[in-house]
Amino acid sequence: LTDYVPVIAPIVSFGFGTDLHYGLIPNYAGRFPQDGFNKLNDAVNLWNTKNLDFAFMNGDYIDAGHIAYTPERTQAEALIDLQNIETIYDNYSGSRYYSFGNHDTDKMSKTTFIVNTVMTSKYYYIDKNNIRFIVLDATFLSDNDNNDFNTGNQDPNNHLTDWVPPTERTWLDTTLSTAPNKVVIFCHQSLHSDTDPLSVNN
C-alpha cells in the first residue's frame, strides 16, 4: 500500500491483491482470515485515490478453514463471508476482477462464487491500452474439463492438485495468438516451475 509515484507514467495501472483468505475463522497456519476485511478496505480506499485501470484479486479471496487447524465454516456461513467481503470490494470505483484460488471453493461451487460476485467466467481476458491481461483457472483436480474444484472435493491433505484442462489450454492458445501486443497472465498458482509443488501440473 505504499504511495509510489512512478517517474514515467505507466501504460496500465491496477490495484492487486491476493490470498486475502477472508472468513470468520480463527487464525491458522500463518493466516489471519478475519483481518482480511480491514486489509481489503484499506486497499480499496487507496485504490480509489489513484487513477487505476482496474483492480484484481488473484485467488483465495475467502477461506472456510481447514479441518486440521480450525473449525470449518458451513456452506451457508462461507456464502455469507463471501457476500460480506464483496461489500468491501464493491466500494472500488472502477472495474474489478478475480481469479480462482484453491480455497475459494472450499464450501461452494465455482458457479455459486460467480453468481455472488461480479466475476463472469472461470477464465477470460481483459484488453487495456493495447495490453492483454489473461486470467487462468487452474483449480481442476486433473487434466479434465469437468473435474473442477467444487465444494471441498479436494483432498484436504493435498490442495496442490492444480491443472489447466484441455479446453482452457486451447482457448489460451487462441487468446495468446490474437493478443494485440504484450500479454500479462494472472493465475493463483505458479506457472514457471516443474518442481515447485505450488505450480500447475501441466
Q: What portion of residues is helical?
A: 10-25%
* Total number of strands: 6
Shape: globular
Q: Quick one: biggest sheet? A: 3 strands, parallel
Q: How far apart lie the N and C ends? A: 34 Å
Question: Whole-number average pLDDT?
Answer: 92
Could you please describe the fold and organization of this structure?
This protein has 202 residues and is of the alpha/beta class. The protein contains four helices and six strands; from the N terminus they run E-H-E-H-E-H-E-E-H-E. It has helices at residues 36-47, 75-89, 110-115, 166-177; strands at 14-17, 54-58, 96-99, 124-128, 131-135, 182-186. Strands 1-2-3 form a three-stranded parallel β-sheet, with helices on one face. Helix 2 (75-89) links the parallel strand 2 (54-58) and strand 3. Helix 1 packs parallel to helix 2. The longest helix has 15 residues, at 75-89. The radius of gyration is 17 Å and the shape is globular. It starts with 13 loop residues before the first strand and ends in a 16-residue tail after the last strand. The relative contact order is 0.14. The model has no long low-confidence stretch (mean pLDDT 92).
List the main descriptive attributes of the protein structure presented here.
globular, three-stranded parallel beta sheet, three-stranded mixed beta sheet, 202 residues, alpha/beta, 22% helix, single chain
